[in-house]
Design brief:
The protein is an alpha/beta fold and about 350 residues long. It has two domains: about 55-185, Rossmann fold, CATH 3.40.50.1980; about 205-345, 3-Layer(aba) Sandwich (Rossmann fold). It contains twelve helices and 13 strands. The protein has helices spanning about 1-50, 80-85, 125-130, 145-155, 170-185, 190-210, 240-245, 265-270, 280-285, 295-300, 310, 330-345; strands at about 55-60, 65-70, 75, 90-95, 115, 135-140, 160, 215-220, 225, 245, 260, 275-280, 315. The chain is globular and about 60 Å long. The relative contact order is 0.10. Pfam families: Peripla_BP_2 (PF01497). One of its GO terms (cellular component) is outer membrane-bounded periplasmic space. Belongs to the bacterial solute-binding protein 8 family. Keywords: Signal, Transport. It is found in: Cell envelope.
Length: about 350
């Protein structure tokens, strides 16, 4: 029995030794496999990362740029871009928060961005540098700081500007900007959808307009009514060319003043427009307490009560945030609203 036990122990020991050796070999093999897998995974990750980098060629107002997409840290100072990029879920790390359209402040605010760049009157460009963006979409109110921003972020960080250019057709310029943003942020289909919607709304508004009807466009600001010059004035100015509108009044020396040009309500009344279109600046930046603005400023004005547009209810206001949100989506909404109004009046 003892010999058997001893033999048994020797056999058991041998089995244990073999098992231990096998375990060691298995562990080594597993370790090697794990190391190989880790190496393969790392190689795959590098390959994937490399594959995801896409070289793009984009032309903005300053020339042609070669970009390496995707972009993860996007700074935006252009009011025409906020809604588009927000709709696409683009991560915005820096923005002039006080200038963000109020309809977007639940998405773009001091809690969602890392750097508040202030306003165009008192910009905090050092905050832009601290946000470490990999691209900057500049334009509109911040155009004057283009060179300053490029110098601060460095030549390797693109600072792009797609602001509609003077002398160019506005619809084409809005489309140019939208398609460029779609290319940069890999939302080509979404950008094309916005363009298609815009073109449809534009054609619809053109078809609905009766060319015998006269148009007056105004800007309400600080309780005052400003004249929006056909072809030149803020927002509604280009609509005269876009839709072939016949102005009820043409004032020499019209400008694109952000509050509109000076005009008396008597001059508006004498021109007797069939339609009045309003961009309410107060609606976007906040009206003073007790001050009438927008449609109320027109409809409640005693001097305008006998104007055809007021008597027939042909007064149309753009969305309240238009003054700070003049992008292709806003233009599409307004064009459709214009078409609705013209069609219902026929």
């Amino acid at each position: 029995m003892i010999l058997r036990r001893t033999a048994g122990r020797k056999v058991a020991g041998s089995v244990a030794a073999l098992a231990a050796a096998s375990l060691v070999l298995t562990s080594c093999s597993q370790a090697e496999d794990a190391a190989t897998s880790a190496t393969d995974a790392a190689s795959s990750a590098v390959a994937t990362t490399t594959a995801e980098v896409v070289a793009l060629t984009v032309e903005d107002n300053y020339g042609t740029h070669t970009l390496n997409a995707p972009f993860e840290r996007v700074a935006v100072t252009d009011n025409r871009s906020f809604e588009i990029l927000s709709q696409w879920g683009v991560n915005i790390v820096a923005a002039p928060v006080p200038l963000v359209p109020k309809t977007l402040r639940d998405k773009i605010n001091e809690d969602t961005v890392e750097a508040n760049l202030g306003t165009h009157k008192e910009p905090d460009l050092e905050a832009l540098v601290a946000a470490d963006p990999d691209i900057v979409i500049n334009g509109q109110r911040f155009e004057r700081y283009q060179e300053d921003m490029q110098t601060l972020v460095g030549k390797d960080i693109p600072v792009l500007d797609f602001e509609p250019r003077d002398g160019e057709d506005l619809p084409s310029e809005l489309i140019r900007q939208t398609l460029a943003l779609g290319t940069i942020f890999n939302h080509e289909d979404d950008a094309q959808a916005l363009v298609d919607d815009f073109n449809k709304a534009l054609e619809r508004a053109k078809a609905a307009y009766d060319p015998s009807k006269t148009i007056m466009a105004v800007n309400t600001s600080g309780g005052e009514i400003g004249y929006i010059a056909p072809g030149k004035g803020r927002f509604f100015g280009p609509f005269f060319d876009m839709l072939g509108w016949k102005p009820s009044l043409e004032v020499a020396g019209g400008t694109n003043n952000h509050e509109g040009d000076d005009i008396s309500v008597e001059a508006i009344a004498q021109s007797n427009p069939d339609w009045i279109f309003i961009m309410d600046r107060d609606g976007a930046i906040g009206a003073k307490d007790g001050v009438l603005h927008g449609e109320a400023l027109i409809k409640d004005n005693a001097a305008l009560q006998n104007v055809t547009a007021v008597k027939q209810g042909n007064v149309v206001a753009a969305p309240e945030d238009t003054y700070t949100n003049e992008n292709i989506i806003t233009y599409t909404e307004v064009l459709n609203a214009i078409a609705d109004a013209f069609e219902s009046a026929k």
